[in-house]
Specification:
This protein is mainly α and about 325 residues long. It folds into 2 domains: about 70 residues, no CATH class; about 210 residues, Orthogonal Bundle (MetI-like fold), CATH 1.10.3720.10. Helices cover about 80% and strands about 0% of the residues. The longest helix has about 40 residues.
């Protein structure tokens, strides 16, 4: 296990290095001057030059990249061009909120999708199967922004069951935190639930047709044991894979939901950094996103061995 982890970590270094090159290059070709946006069009050009010099934006691009890369080695992502705040502090304040939202969305999607997919597979070809399939396709098809607004209208404005927007730290008031995160989690988790339902159904149907399942049934094992202990466990590999990929996508896909529900998370920080052309913040956000996706994929690889004993890492 340890050699496998070390090998994967070493393999991740070139990937992250390539990410740094791409994100630094892309931010520099974005239209718009961050200094001009910050100071205004009517500012004296001499003042603009001095501000660019103070931020190091007047230096050659390779020099700026080398300085940023050196800062990364020291765990320093630089400072925001807008308010001179440490980028690591900005991300550290916002990222836990988005991770919480993503985990709640994954939980909601999994709790709905796994039982629905198993139920649909066990009633293949029936009206129940068709109904579950239709609901799954609806979850995939409805855009997040529309579903979020619809949920606010129904459950907040009409029924008054939950607050429409806002955020409360869980360590201050867990109950209020969960009530505020419920609708955003459902909004993000609906598409995930739809996709996982279809994947669970198809994977389980494939496993149920294998010989060892018929052997288990011939031994007199109960239907519940055959389904949940043997079939579903072997069908879980593609499900876990997709869940890992979806979690990485949720970190970026939370942008719309965080805007709709006024959640001060990672997504809103991305939007502000793009509009303000805040290069250090944007670079740090993309790099941290890539690092999170790398960690999630590594965790998924390790889960394979826990799910299927035939898989070993050496």
């Amino acid at each position: 296990m340890i050699p496998f982890l070390l090998r994967r970590l070493l393999e991740g270094i070139p990937t992250l290095l390539l990410v740094t090159v791409l994100v630094f290059s892309i931010t520099r070709i974005l239209p718009g001057d961050p200094v001009r946006l910050m100071l205004g069009e009517e500012t004296d050009p001499e003042i603009m030059r001095e501000v660019r010099k103070s931020f190091g934006l007047d230096r050659p691009i390779p020099v700026q990249y080398a300085e940023w890369l050196y800062g990364l080695l020291l765990a320093d992502l630089g400072r925001s061009l807008r308010d001179n705040t440490q980028v690591t502090k900005l991300i550290g304040d916002k990222l836990p909120t988005t991770i919480e939202l993503s985990l709640l969305a994954i939980f909601f999607g999994t709790v709905i999708a796994i039982p629905a997919g198993v139920f649909s597979a066990l009633h293949r070809g029936s009206w129940w199967d068709g109904g579950v399939t239709a609901l799954a396709l609806s979850g995939i098809s409805i855009p997040n922004f529309f579903l979020g607004i619809l949920l606010i209208y129904v459950f907040s404005l009409k029924l008054g069951w939950v607050p429409p927007s806002g955020y409360e730290e869980p360590w201050k008031n867990l109950g209020k935190n969960l009530s505020l995160m419920l609708l955003p989690a459902i909004t993000l988790g609906s598409a995930l639930a739809g996709g996982l339902t279809r994947l669970t159904r198809n994977s389980l149907l494939e496993v149920l047709s294998l010989d060892y399942i018929r052997t288990a049934q011939a031994k007199g094992l109960s239907k519940r044991v055959v389904i949940y202990k043997h079939a579903l466990r072997n069908a879980a590999i593609p499900i876990v894979t997709v869940m890992g990929l979806q979690f990485g996508g949720l970190l970026g896909g939370a942008v719309v939901s965080e805007q709709i529900f006024s959640i001060p998370g990672f997504g809103r920080l991305v939007v502000d950094a793009v509009f303000n052309r805040d290069f250090p913040v944007l670079q740090g956000l993309v790099l941290v996103s890539a690092l999170c996706i790398f960690v999630v994929n590594l965790t998924v690889d390790l889960l394979y061995a826990a799910i299927d004993p035939r898989i070993t890492y050496s």
